[in-house]
Amino acid sequence: MSKRKLSRQQQWRVDKVQAERASRAEKRDVRDAEKLAAGEYGAEQPGRVMAHFGRTLEVRNAEGAPVRCHLRANLEGMVTGDRVIWRAGQEGSGVVVAREERDTVLKRPDARGQLKPVAANIDQILIVFAVEPAPHPNLIDRYLVAAEATDIAPVLVLNKTDLLPEDGGELGKLLERYRALGYPVVRTTTADEAGLDALRAQLEGRTSVFVGQSGVGKSSLIDLLLPDESLRIGALSEDSRKGTHTTTTARLYTMNRDEVTDGELIDSPGIREFGLIHLTEQDVTDGFIEFRPFLGHCRFRDCRHREEPGCALLEAVETGKIHPERFASYRRILDSLDA
Length: 339
Description:
Layout lengths: L7 H31 L5 E10 L2 E5 L5 E6 L11 E6 L4 E7 L5 E5 L5 E6 L3 E7 L6 H14 L2 E7 L9 H12 L4 E3 L9 H7 L3 E5 L6 H8 L25 E7 L2 E8 L1 H4 L8 H6 L25 H7 L5 H15 L1
Parallel strand pairs: 3-5, 8-9, 8-11, 9-10, 11-13
Antiparallel strand pairs: 1-2, 1-4, 2-3, 4-5, 6-7, 12-13
Helix pairs in contact: 2-9
């Protein structure tokens, strides 16, 4: 559906509201600068962005408590997970005065196709899928390609393993194929108390994000990992066997168990919707890690790995060094980019 064109009067009202907001922010920044100069804020101290609300941030202080802060005028582009320097003000508020260098940043395209940061300083991306709804290998591959493009380590998490047959079935074989490629594979279930032990071990000491299609149980897992947090859980539709998205605000959660910090989680709809629209054909090729030893060895430098003679990838498929189903999945992803 195309966007409705605003009338001249409507556009004037929109511009007026935006100008008033910008004016209020400018006045607030001037007041902050005056307070900083007058010494009304405390000493600089490190913190971590727990949530982002426009130019207002929720920052975790050294004691682990949230503090509502706002940004100085010269700071832009803060996201959940950023490490910042802030100064405490009166009545439990504060002001962020600097952002520390990021180790990693996760981006996704906005409505205009421009890459936009959504979270920072992430150690691993947990790609969650489940026995039900049944995962498709091509969907898993798409998530892996997107994760590889971020330079953040991906981890495959199979949820609802209590529904697997005793021998693991075809899904068990698929998991072993990914494990053989070097990807960590974690099996988990919420059906019993020990079902999250392997997942907890993978999360310990790391900052993680969850991605995956609806209905795989991401919110249910996080709810059990964070028993003190209030998270809404979407019910799995009995008719479609698909779930619905429930999380609406990006937030950094700290996991504590037996008064020991196990790790941190960031959950956000902007992270779950993990697409490939911003990737090039070369990005997709690089995202298949088993292809890497063969790249650059084709007869032609501009080889697109389709039917060209002397293609190193095609030869690797024929000799069993690349699984034919993975290569077929690769071709489907490239075709989808051209569609």
